[in-house]
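Subject: Interface between my chains keeps coming out wrong

I've been trying for a while to get a sensible model of this assembly. When I model each chain on its own everything looks fine, but I need the whole thing in one frame so I can look at the contacts. Pasting all components below, labels as-is. Any help appreciated, I'm running out of ideas.
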Amino acid sequence: MTMTSLQETDVLSSVQPITVHVITIGRLASEACAVNMSPWKVCVPGERLCSTEVCKAGSGTYIRHSFIFASLAGYVVKKNEGEELPVISVARETEAQLLPDVNAIVTCKVTSINSRFAKVHILYVGSTPLKNKFRGTIRKEDVRATEKDKVEIYKCFRPGDIVLAKVISLGDVQSNYLLTTAENELGVVVAHSEAGVQMVPISWCEMQCPRTHAKEFRKVARVQPEYLMP
Amino acid sequence: MAGIELLSDQGYRVDGRKPNELRKIQARMGVFSQADGSAYIEQGNTKALAVVYGPHEIRGSRSKSQHDRAIINCQYSMATFSTGERKRRPHGDRKSSEMTLHLKQTFEAAILTQLYPRSQIDIYVQILQADGGNYSACVNAATLAVVDAGIPLRDYVCACSAGFVEDTPLVDLSHLEESAGGTQLSLAVLPKAEHLALIEMDSRLHQDHLESMMDAATQACKDLYAVLDRVVRDHLQEVTTSIGE
Amino acid sequence: MLRRPQRASKLHQRVMNTNSLTQAPWHQTTVEPLEYHRKFLKENCRPDGRELGEFRTTTLNIGSITTADGSALVKLGNTTIICGIKGELAAPPADAPDKGYIVPNVDLPPLCSSRFRPGPPGEQAQAASQFIADVIENSEMLQREDLCIEKGKLSWVLYCDIICLDYDGNILDACIIALLASMKNVQLPEVHVNEQTGLAEVNMKKKRHLNIVKHPVAASFAVFDNSILIVDPTSDEENLSTGFITVVIDEEEKLCTVHKPGGTPLSNEKLQDCINRAITRNKEVCKLLNKVMKSMKAK
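Reply #2:
Try treating it as a single job with all components included. I did that and got this:
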């Protein structure tokens, strides 16, 4: 435990800057190697980067009066696509908050089910974790591609399951994000049996508990083996 | 007029500043772990904190949601020990509600809300010690917090207060100068584009003097911008070196 | 057993390395937080590298708010609490004409964490305020008679406003430390009641400190999985724990308050462990407080 005696009257002078996740800086560095890039330049919001004739606007920028301005504080990244104009964007160390967008693959956790739909909390968008949970709904008719009306939610999802789904709608005033699992690669990835043990998938609609050998119904995702969590 | 001389014969103010001189500014970004973005600023003796959460799902009444943009939710509150006399209601009283609304309107102009449809951005500002220029300190702190949170901004928002004494515009008023009566102008600008985000003025002023006051305030905002810019760049350097390249 | 903290980094490294799941630590914290914590607890350490009986780094800054009569800022890891004390004059209560008032108030504003919504103080804030009031009363850290200026006519009211700026668990401990530090920092001016006019005359030039006789310090524990006791829980650990207990001890090793709001039942030995750890914590905090006060006087 540090015993600090503080000299300045600055109230928060003992604070360190927040440590940032190491995962994302790796991404930035690899991007630098893979892509033809100019040396990193710092920019702040409102700084004019270049005109629209020289580059195209990427993420973290906006256009006004045919000039491209930065809208984030970070590093300017210029990517040469090849035939078209290079894309200029601003990258930050921490991933800026992503919102789930239409056709994005999301990882969510089932919170409650009833006969018509399952309510979920969206945890990841792609591979980026979300800091705040967003709520989503998987309707009965969006669970499978075939035999949509004969679906029983109880036999597809249970509360606590981790599900891979795709966003079909951002929803409106009344509802949350609408999701679908009507593809082979979408569905339950991790589920616990009634005994509390993580189950092993045995077919597209069944999972088995390794301890009690009881089989339970789920709509299972066909996931490549290396992506499955052990 | 009060017995205190706000401007001496040599042109110095009560605290020894020149009429167009800002108070000492110290600012820090990324001070809190729970929030998406946070900042702390000290302008002279006024200490303000700003914290940003978002963009996240709309809480409370869903009916406020906009299909094409994010809504901005602000709250301005003063700590009960921030003023000379203990403040009984930290927020919810008329003055705080007015400040809250001003903050909301200012940031709606600056944040690119179209990028986050159907979500909410929360900006909470807390004044720990009030010594004049409360609104300006809040806006400056909130700008730094929004930049820290990685929410896209059109430009920084810099704010400053100004007054007028004996034909000279004074900038960055302290509590003593504010309570002595006389004209007060609060100005929030987007410095690069030189767009005005918010102007508020009370008390009577001859229209000839308005221009000189606005010019003085705008120049002060530009000086403030230079300071805030330095803070943001230093923070970026710090964050990068602490990760290591 | 809660031992004195040693360097837990080696154990922590071992857990991080052997655990293939921790290749993607984000997965674990969001998807299966309980399992993630359990893996560390098996090795007697915690995800942030601390031992079970180790408190987070405590930093203290006194007297930064000049508009308040006394103030202190405490950081316990990421949890940040600021306390400001203002004194006002009022008539003493009818049933105790020789005593003053001490009014604590804990505020958990929405800026400290996304779990709090704007609006009137919630349950947690009100319960914390009551807890602090109980501690002040039970520990007798300040004699209320000291706050009386003239019996039956005038006394001081000390408003202690505690604001949480960053919520990362264990606010009760931090609030008590902030309160104690700001009480020691309070300087009240001399007040005389004028005989003829009956009005109070305040002499701002002469100021004196409060007479703090006892120094209560709190230590909070969380119970995990009905058996493991961890000290100073962070916000994640609080959400996953099955019970809480807070023990307040003063410097004479006397118990001021024991607060156990329901939750898993505890055995006597575990309670004794908690009390022992709280005693050592009191010594640590008093040492820190004295060091900071000394450095302030030196200025």
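Reply #3:
Confirming on my end. The first strand of chain B starts at residue 25 and ends at 29.
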